[in-house]
Design brief:
The protein is an alpha+beta fold. It is built from ten helices and ten strands. The chain has a five-stranded antiparallel β-sheet with strand order 2-1-5-4-3, with helices on both faces. Helix 2 runs antiparallel to helix 9. The longest helix has 55 residues. It is rod-shaped.
Length: 375
């Protein structure tokens, strides 16, 4: 047992043990550095996702708020209220068509409408030839406004698609005349400012299907989506894990490893406060390239560190081993009183030089002692 321990605690084995420990330390440090950098990348990516989600929800809110002030001004105009009360369709159209044209050109307003308390459309300024139809089954905002006689604003899905609507009751002399409304469409024009701030592929996906008469496809609008995109498939269905997160009002993201992209899904509420659709944003990400670079850097640091420490320990080991073995031989000679040869051992370490000098002086002293005190 003692001999085995002595074999383990040789200079060579001690150097190897220290070298292995240092190599392990380098690997651990490289791994920790990589994990810390990846954590920093994750934080940066999360901040970007939060910025996109905030910008999208703010743009949605602005879509409603941009039409609400205009419709309030509309029902404050006494001439318009008089014509509405008189059910003068032609007069009402002539009184509002210039205003509508200006709002359409400058503010993106696509719809101006007057609906009577019996749920029948009196006038569509944007389409005056179509009137008299009942809206009870197709326009929930109008139904809410007429029955409750209060302002209703937000996203609504009608027969032709989604739009930002502001519907307000019109009264004159305490008499309820019906509801006036303005609206703008939720289409590719809505996605343009989003893409200007955050370039990528954009799509609006409907979760409340079955209401639109012109099209019941999941895709409401898209920008920069290629023709073969999965989301353009008429039978596209939102994956269950994404849908679960969205219905819990939580944005969802995923990294698309094959294309090295990030996909962000942002839930959007309708005027009732229900999650009725979502915006999907897909953009190239540097995540995978950064991960590869960090792993490569960690490997290079580890290999370089191992190589340099191995070389340094090898040189140090040789610088110690050679003179130490020579000193062992000299001490063996001194033990046997073989004092004839001069001690000539080279060493690069100061401590070993001092030890060699001390052995040489001891040998010279023993030579003098042997000369004057023969055995």
């Amino acid at each position: 047992m003692k001999n085995r321990l002595q074999g383990i605690f040789q200079i060579k084995n001690s150097f190897l043990l220290v070298l292995v420990l240092i190599q392990v330390l380098i690997l651990v440090l490289a791994t920790l550095l990589t994990r810390l950098t990846l954590h920093t990348i994750d934080i940066s990516e999360a901040e970007k996702r939060d910025s996109v989600a905030t910008f999208v929800t703010s743009t949605v809110a602005h879509g409603t708020s941009s039409v609400e002030p205009a419709v309030r001004v509309l029902v404050a105009n006494q001439e318009i209220l008089r014509l509405f009360a008189a059910r003068d369709r032609d007069g009402l159209f002539n009184a509002t068509k210039v205003l509508f044209g200006s709002l359409q050109q400058n503010n993106g307003v696509k719809q101006m409408q007057f609906t009577a308390p019996d749920f029948k459309v009196l006038l569509r300024v944007h389409n005056p030839a179509l009137y008299g139809d009942d809206v009870t089954t197709s326009r929930p905002t109008l139904v809410d406004c007429i029955t409750q006689q209060h302002l209703v604003a937000g996203l609504e899905q009608g027969r032709s698609g989604y739009g930002f609507r502001a519907v307000i009751p019109a009264t004159s002399g305490g008499q309820f005349l019906g509801c006036a409304e303005m609206g703008s469409d939720l289409d590719a024009s809505f996605l343009a400012p989003l893409n200007a701030n955050f370039p990528g592929r954009w799509a609006i996906v409907n979760l409340d299907r079955g209401t639109r008469l012109t099209s019941d496809a999941a895709l409401v609008a898209a920008l920069n989506e290629p023709a073969n995109s999965d989301i353009r498939n008429p039978n596209y269905s939102t994956p269950a894990n994404i849908l679960k997160s969205l219905l819990n009002s939580q944005p969802y993201f995923e990294y698309l490893k094959s294309s090295e992209e990030m996909a962000l899904y942002i839930p959007i509420r309708n005027f009732k406060g229900d999650i009725a659709l979502y915006v999907r944003y897909v953009t190239p990400t540097t995540y995978y390239a950064t991960v590869r670079r960090m792993i490569l850097n960690a490997l290079l640091i580890s290999v370089l560190g191992m190589g340099l420490t191995g070389l340094a320990f090898s040189m140090l080991y040789r610088g110690i081993k050679t003179p130490v073995l020579a000193l062992v031989q000299e001490t063996e000679k001194i033990k046997n009183f073989d004092l004839r040869e001069k001690v000539e051992i080279k060493a690069s370490l100061v401590e070993l030089e001092k030890l060699i000098r001390a052995v040489a002086e001891m040998k010279m002293g023993l030579q003098s002692f042997q000369k004057y005190v023969p055995a």
